[in-house]
Amino acid sequence: MQDWQQVQSALKQYWGYEALRPPQDRVIRALLEKRDALVVLPTGFGKSLCFQLTSLLQTGLTLVVSPLIALMEDQVQDLWKRRLPAACLHSELDPALRKRVLKALEENRLRLLYLGPETLFSPPVWQRLQQPQVQISSLIVDEAHTLVHWGGSFRPDYRRLGLLRPALAKPSFPIAAFTATADPQTCTRLGHILGLQDPECIRADPLRANISLNVAIAWSPADRRRRLLRFLAENPGPGLVYVRTRRDGEELAAWLGRHNQKTATYHGGLEAGSRRRLERGWLQGELRFLVCTNAFGMGINKPDVRWVLHFHPPPHLMDYLQEVGRGGRDGGPCQALMLVSEPTGLLDPSDRQRQAYFYSQQERLLAQARRLLQTLPPQGSYANLPPGETRVALGLLQEMGCLHWPDPFHFQVVHRRWQPLPRQDPWQEMEALIHARGCRWQAILPYFGYPEGQPCGTCDRCRQRR
């Protein structure tokens, strides 16, 4: 392991910081000691700096698996400004630049390479990773909660990341998972899927008292929109409005436009150029706020977000914490308001209908996995499966232990017993937050494995008690 003086010197030289903040030092020591790690630290703790700094102090390549192209490009551009040998590979990259990056990978000239799981397992990249001159110092899974949260229903290639280390004939390298939010069950599943070996677990509780959590009942669809307009008038500065579906976002943005609110809707269905323009417009203040789905915000570094409004409650407490966490990154005050339907659902059944829809989607995927289990050949190739839900279903079977993978590209059926993993309905935790009688932050902490402590003093429940 390097002398700690080298760590401090590199920190000062490339980032201009005099010292690390706890527990960054623990993370860096674990990576330098070649230990697997599971790092769960709230936004603002400088998680990216930990593996970026470590990559400079080691020989070889640090692979960084990241879920979003915008997130990759932002981090790589920041590293370029610091004159560090980093690059990213993704489907939207200019062909000439892609060719240069692949050549740099082959010649072992990169210290950090950002890419998605689909690109990691693509033939051009995989063939180069197997070449003997390419040294790998570590595998970093950034925003690792998406591996569990998205990997089962959206990005099935995430499921294969745990097969990378045993499949490469290389000296052993550590795997580290980084995220801002993960409950104990997610941490366990992350360790299992990634094949973490005795990982160093470094965690900090998610409480951020500068974010004032508030919940308000919308008695009808019209009342929900009136409350939104009132909130926008009362809260100046940049912010975000979260909705649950693309259609919700487009309809709400159009309605706000008719009420003299300059905004736009952001979702995963937009083409790449449109997404970048909206991101830049919001970051540079041309748009005060965006109406967005959960496709927006991960890794976006805008310190002065003063408010976050959930027009609909998210289906999962992890989504909620990720989304409110985009506010107040500078430590300044942030107002977070979640609008919910009245308890009976008679006047506004929209929240219940959305939850029923998400639940039915999960049940449909499970049913498809059950059918697939009976029709899969004893052994097969991942590449021969049609992309989309069939691969998602295969990932569910993998998590049930029905499959064995000799390598990341071929599977064998171990057994055909249907054994879905028991999971708690995530909406129960959201309801506990919505109906909490005491401090809302203290209602969140037990879900993430922390005991309740002192009230935050800033949420609506704490203010009512005062």
Topology:
Elements: H1 4-15, H2 24-32, E1 37-40, H3 47-56, E2 61-65, H4 69-81, E3 86-89, H5 95-106, E4 112-115, H6 117-120, H7 123-129, E5 136-141, H8 145-149, H9 164-167, E6 175-179, H10 184-194, E7 200-203, E8 211-218, H11 221-234, E9 239-242, H12 246-258, E10 265-266, H13 272-283, E11 289-292, E12 307-310, H14 317-324, E13 334-341, H15 350-375, E14 379-381, H16 389-399, E15 403-407, E16 410-413, H17 427-434, H18 440-444, H19 460-465
Parallel strand pairs: 1-6, 1-7, 2-4, 2-5, 3-4, 5-6, 8-13, 9-11, 9-12, 10-11, 12-13
Antiparallel strand pairs: 14-16, 15-16
Helix pairs in contact: 2-3, 15-16
Describe it:
- With 466 residues, this protein is of the alpha/beta class.
- The strands form three sheets. The protein has a seven-stranded parallel beta sheet, sandwiched between helices. It has a six-stranded parallel beta sheet with strand order 8-13-12-9-11-10. It has a three-stranded antiparallel beta sheet with strand order 14-16-15.
- Helix 15 crosses helix 16.
- The mean pLDDT is 91.
What is this structure, in a nutshell?
The protein is an alpha/beta fold. The protein has 19 helices and 16 strands.
